[in-house]
């Protein structure tokens, strides 16, 4: 049955009344909203939690941590790239998921910003380096440095006094160094300071390899030809063994890398934990040294 013109008119009026009432309701709600100033000054209505990750905290928890002396924040940079047939392309990010909180805990007054997962990984078109492989995401140098600059400036605005770059991949290092040099100049009159701690990457990787061989007695005896080794594999397994396809490799009889077995599972996870402990201590010391340098 067709709707008459009069009925259509009534329906339109009904909708107009409904929208008007919604507008009044919304206006009333906005009048009851806390102002920014009230929110920033309010007491926490519930107890806070303990986490080293900035993204897992509320703004009130972060505010109070900064006020109570947690004034260092680490910006970890990872990447999305090819890592052989066993490891997922988020290798660097997974290693940082375990490493950054360990570093922050050793410092005692630090938090971790979210992992920067997008970094330079080769030319996009025509592709070079890791960009030849499906799944890789690459930023050009200007985009990467602009991203780091905005993140660092945001954290300075939040009230952190020492902002620290670390990176798990070689391709990340130059951009972090460039941004640090630039911000040191721009922040000269600021109480905040920017730091690039290269030591997490180098000599962090080399020293961790030597520690594993000399102190833990674990050394590679061959090379399988992949962008993979026992160090990255064991550290990734601390966070998630599935990301190295542990079960699938055991079933296929391929549970080793470069001559080193990755089973039993518990032993390789413990190996990864010792590697992270060693590398995190080295990095925490380097961060302290950088922070303690006078302007």
Q: What is the gyration radius calculated from CA atoms?
A: 25 Å
- Write out the CATH superfamily name: Creatininase
The poorly predicted ranges are: none
Largest pleated sheet: 4 strands, parallel
SSE pattern? HHHEHEHEHEHHHEEH
Percent strand equals 5-15%
What do you see in this structure?
The protein is α/β, with parallel strands linked by helices. The protein has one domain: Rossmann fold (3-Layer(aba) Sandwich). The chain is 50% helix and 8% strand. The strands form 2 sheets. Strands 2-1-3-4 form a 4-stranded parallel sheet, with helices on both faces. Strands 5-6 form a two-stranded antiparallel sheet. The model has no long low-confidence stretch (mean pLDDT 92).
Layout of strands and helices, then pairs:
Elements: H1 5-32, H2 36-41, H3 59-67, E1 72-77, H4 91-107, E2 110-112, H5 141-158, E3 162-167, H6 173-186, E4 193-196, H7 204-214, H8 230-239, H9 246-252, E5 256-257, E6 260-261, H10 265-292
């Amino acid at each position: 049955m067709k709707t008459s013109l009069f009925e259509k008119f009534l329906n339109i009026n009904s909708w107009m009344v409904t929208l008007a009432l919604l507008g009044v309701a919304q206006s009333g709600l906005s009048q009851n909203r806390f102002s920014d100033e009230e929110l920033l000054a309010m007491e926490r209505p519930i107890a806070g939690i303990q986490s080293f990750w900035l993204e897992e905290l509320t703004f009130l928890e972060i505010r109070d941590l900064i006020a109570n002396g947690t004034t260092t924040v680490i910006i970890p940079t990872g990447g999305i790239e090819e890592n052989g047939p066993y490891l997922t392309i988020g290798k660097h990010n997974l290693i940082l998921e375990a490493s950054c909180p360990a570093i922050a805990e050793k410092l005692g007054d630090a938090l971790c910003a979210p992992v920067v997962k997008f970094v330079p990984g080769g030319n996009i078109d025509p592709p070079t380096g890791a960009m030849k492989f499906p799944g890789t995401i690459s930023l050009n140098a200007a985009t990467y440095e602009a991203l780091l600059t905005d993140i660092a400036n945001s954290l300075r605005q939040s009230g952190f006094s020492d902002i620290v770059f670390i990176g798990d991949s070689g391709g990340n290092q130059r951009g972090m160094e460039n941004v640090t040099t630039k911000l040191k100049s721009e922040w000269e009159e600021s109480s905040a300071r920017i730091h690039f701690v290269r030591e997490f990457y180098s000599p962090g990787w080399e020293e961790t390899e030597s520690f594993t061989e000399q102190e833990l007695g674990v050394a590679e005896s061959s090379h399988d030809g992949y962008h993979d080794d026992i160090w990255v594999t064991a550290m990734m397994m601390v966070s998630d063994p599935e990301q190295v396809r542990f079960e699938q490799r055991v079933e296929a009889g391929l549970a080793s890398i470069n001559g080193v077995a990755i089973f039993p599972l518990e032993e390789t996870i413990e190996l990864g934990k010792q590697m992270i402990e060693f590398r995190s201590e080295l990095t925490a010391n380097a961060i302290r040294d950088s922070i303690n340098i006078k302007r």
